[in-house]
Amino acid sequence: MFAVIKTGGKQYRVAPDEVVTVGKIEAEAGQSVTLPVLMLGGDNPKAGAPLVDGASVTVEVVKHTRGDKVIAFKKRRRQNSRRKIGHRQDFTVVRVTSITGA
């Protein structure tokens, strides 16, 4: 059985006992969080409109981490004009503990 969940404006396909890196979730390491389900898959799949009624995915926060540094560099030629900015995205590593469906 698998589920498609939505968190942080993105969708993820998850299965039980899977470790997934998602956008930052405001929870401490070790806490459990319930996420909405867009679709349940398996023997008899169910698609929601937009959410599946009575279905939920429980995940456990493993740790908070940050992504690689991305450099945004802009240069205008012959004008002695340039801009360099670095950015690191915050992520949360979660473990799917259970998928419940109606």
TrEMBL record:
InterPro entries linked to this entry: bL21-like, bL21-like_sf, Ribosomal_bL21
* Any Pfam family hit: Ribosomal_L21p
Q: Give the GO molecular function terms.
A: rRNA binding; structural constituent of ribosome
One GO CC term on file: ribonucleoprotein complex
User: What GO terms in the biological process aspect are recorded for it?
Assistant: translation
Q: Which family does it belong to?
A: Belongs to the bacterial ribosomal protein bL21 family.
What binding partners and quaternary form does the record give? Part of the 50S ribosomal subunit. Contacts protein L20.
Q: Which NCBIfam families match?
A: L21
Q: What does this protein do?
A: This protein binds to 23S rRNA in the presence of protein L20.
Check the record and name the PANTHER family matching this protein: 50S RIBOSOMAL PROTEIN L21, LARGE RIBOSOMAL SUBUNIT PROTEIN BL21M
Q: What is this protein called?
A: Large ribosomal subunit protein bL21
Provide the gene name from the record: rplU
